[in-house]
Amino acid sequence: MYYQEPHRPQIHFTPKENWINDPNGLVYFEGEYHLFYQRNPYGNDHDHMHWGHAVSSDLFHWEELDIALAPDELGTIFSGSAVVDKDNTSGLFEEGSGGLVAIFTHDGQSQQQSIAYSSDKGRTWKKYIGNPVIENTTIKDFRDPKVFWHKETEKWMMVLACGDHIQIYGSPNLIDWEYLSSFGKEYPSHEGVWECPDLVCLPIEGTDDSIWVLIVSMNEGGPNGGSAVQYFTGSFDGIFFRPNEQAEDPVKWADEGKDFYAAITWDNTAKTYWIGWMNNWEYAGEVPVSPWRSSMSLVRTLTVQQVKGDYLLKQTPVIPENQQKQLQEEPFTVQPSAYLEYEIKLPVTINVETKEIPNSGQWGFRLISDQEEIFTFHFDQEKDVYFFSRTAGILDFSKDFSKEITGSLKGQKVKNIFSILDQSSVEIFVNDGLSVSTNLFYPRGSIEKMQLYTEKEEVPFNGLSLEEYQSIWK
Ligand code: FRU
Question: Is 421 in contact with 415 (CB distance < 8 Å)?
Fold first, then answer.
């Protein structure tokens, strides 16, 4: 039976079987959130790339549909985006009607940008007869078009990843594209190849202002090794993206964990939502699961918060109000000599609000399986870091997997921690999502206990709640 295999996520999207990677073509249209994704319909490795397809009405429960786009003589179908062409600017729809247009990379002799269109809510697609719409024979890495409507200039805008920089193109009709500008050669990080860009205007919390954010995935060179998502905040005038003066640390990472990649945002929504591929290219082909391989993160709402002269991404998971509240604790204190222990059953969310966190010493959470495997996430306020330790469970599939993963608290005192545990993943949202760490782990047994501990000083909490979730596949 599908969805009951060991380590199968129960509240995260996975395909019934076979390989997936990047989310593609995220768009809201007529009551449905579409999630397309890189998909190999024939096996459990990265090959024969197609676009798979799923839909949701709440960004949490997903229904997997048929393959949307398949390879052709121009190549396999790499990552890209989708928009609603409601005014039929492309002329690809019947007069007086609009529809969905997908913009993607054909990966063949070279990487070129192409489009396809659908008049039946994304169920079937026709490729544009004049593909590619952006030709290329010279640039090696030239891919992952993300398109949005820019109302000030009344044009479609495309951001495209070109190895060590981003190119921006504009178009009146999604077919004829004009090169506008480039960004990024002189901005870090360049330890790997730039992929899957996105350019969004996000509200700044607590103000009426907004700010442009350029999102760039990069494989290799992430802070914990392998692939990771960086971003730049700045302005966009319809031609150029100009970054703000960056505060101290020039590279800003969207996720402090190791398994959040190729994340892009939904088009045609009032709030901005995004989702990432919950894996890392360092070991994505080896993770010990089948008959599917890889899952998506939970969907997250994106905003920006100003912190000491800098602008930081803030992410809030989209997860329905609880179905089953397991436990709600009033204020309590954890002492150095004693663990506080709770029974848990995955999938579960653990929500704590802290009081006056001590400055020195580590404290945190231990997750324990019925085979005595221990995974921890713990905090060190003095060093401004937190960790996820996955040195237990199944590890032998990759030398790069068994590590303590380090994330930055970004100079903030820990006030609250919301963590979401599924069968083989944890997403940790610290301080209302100002710092997030997404990581995979593979226990042999089943996680049954959670302990709170502190090594040196007592840690006071204002409260704790545990909420168990039902599988989204029932
Ligand atoms: C990112 C990526 C993209 C590419 C796709 C291929 O993970 O390498 O740049 O389009 O995956 O599957």
Answer: no
- Domain 18-317 maps to which CATH number in 2.115.10.20, 2.40.10.10, 3.40.50.720, 3.40.50.300? 2.115.10.20
Ligand 1 atom with the shortest distance to the CA of 22: 7
- Ligand 1: atom nearest CA of 195 is 9
pLDDT tens digits, 63-97: 999 999 999 999 999 999 999 999 999 999 999 99
Ligand 1 atom closest to the CA of 46, numbered from 1: 12
Show me where the domains of the chain are located: 18-317, 326-468
User: Looking at domain 326-468, what is its CATH homologous superfamily?
Assistant: Exo-inulinase; domain 1 (2.60.120.560)
Among residues 22, 144, 380, 422, the one annotated as catalytic is 22
Residue linked to tokens 């730039």: 194
Q: Would you give the DSSP letter of residue 1?
A: -
Contact between 272 and 27 under an 8 Å Cβ cutoff? The reply is no
Q: Which of 18, 20, 36, 38 to mutate to test the pocket of ligand 1 (most atoms within 8 A of CB)?
A: 38
User: Who lines ligand 1 at CB under 6 A?
Assistant: 21-22, 38, 49, 78-79, 105, 143-144, 195-196, 262
For 280-313, write each residue's pLDDT tens digit.
999 999 999 999 999 999 999 999 999 988 999 9
Burial class (CB in 10 A: 0-12, 13-18, 19+), 402: middle
pLDDT tens figures, 90-128: 999 999 999 999 999 999 999 999 999 999 999 999 999
- How far apart CA 192 and CA 174 sit, in angstroms, is 30
Q: Is 176 a catalytic residue?
A: no
ipTM: 0.99
Q: What pLDDT is recorded for position 358?
A: 86
